[in-house]
Amino acid sequence: MVTGKIHHCPYCSYITHNKTHMTIHVRKHTGERPHACPHCSYRTVQENNLKRHVLIHSKEKIHSCSYCKFRTDTLGALQRHIQRLHVGSFAIGGRSDTKKRHHTLQVSLGGRKNTPGMSKIHRCPYCSYSTPKKTHMTSHVRIHTKEKPFCCLYCPLRFTQKGNLHKHMMTHVKNNYVHPSQR
After folding, report:
1. Mean per-residue pLDDT for 107-118?
2. How large is the average pLDDT for residues 152-163?
3. Which of 71, 68, 67 is nearest to 57 (CA)?
4. pLDDT value for 111
5. How far is C-alpha 129 from the chain's CA centre?
6. Are 150 and 159 in contact (CB under 8 A)?
7. pLDDT surpassing 80 at residue 120
8. Which positions fall inside the C2H2-type domain (predicted)?
9. Confidence class of residue 60 from pLDDT cuts 50, 70 and 90?
């Protein structure tokens, strides 16, 4: 059984017996990031995050990315870096509204190709956005192409995402709107 003082967040309903946990939690509300890297502009809420970050400035970087200049002292960090930034489909060239050319970058870690758990990273051909989810990329690209394939049955509004169309259509339902063809 935990005993001691209960700490209540002044901004929300969060409570804890651990004062340190409360301090870290409250910083989410205040935006305070008291731990600063002495080598760059990185700031963080927790001291442990800073300790981990400072390692990127260390000369003791034994694992190097073969696709960019990233270096780290842990194999796990290298694998996460490659998974997030280099594995998957990459669009080549500039904007093309017809066909986009792609190639797949196969990554070999530890002598194995297609390392289990490594997912494809989809990169936007118009900006620096990337995501492991193809559906997220499809929605994102519509920001650039202005494509709005989902149209409301009750009014002329169109949407880039099906979910936004459904939310919009609920406003018609709540207002008891009847489609002209059903009057």
Report:
1. 39
2. 84
3. 71
4. 36
5. 9
6. yes
7. no
8. 7-34, 35-62, 122-149, 150-177
9. low
Give the per-residue SS3 of the chain: CCCCCCEECCCCCCEECCHHHHHHHHHHHHCCCCEECCCCCCEECCHHHHHHHHHHHCCCCCEECCCCCCEECCHHHHHHHHHHHCCEEEECCCCCCCCCCEEEECCEECCEECCCCCCCCEECCCCCCEECCHHHHHHHHHHHHCCCCEECCCCCCEECCHHHHHHHHHHHHHCCCCCHHHC
Q: Who contacts 162 (Cβ-Cβ below 8 Å, separation ≥6)?
A: 150
Residue with tokens 């990127």: 56
Write out the two tokens for 37: 């890297």
Q: pLDDT digit string (tens) for 9-30?
A: 998 888 989 998 899 889 888 9
Residues written for the chain: 183
Residue owning tokens 């005993």: 3
102: tokens are 């792609």
Q: If we measure between CA atoms, which residue out of 63, 65, 59 comes closest to residue 87?
A: 65
15 and 6 Cβ atoms separated by less than 8 Å: yes
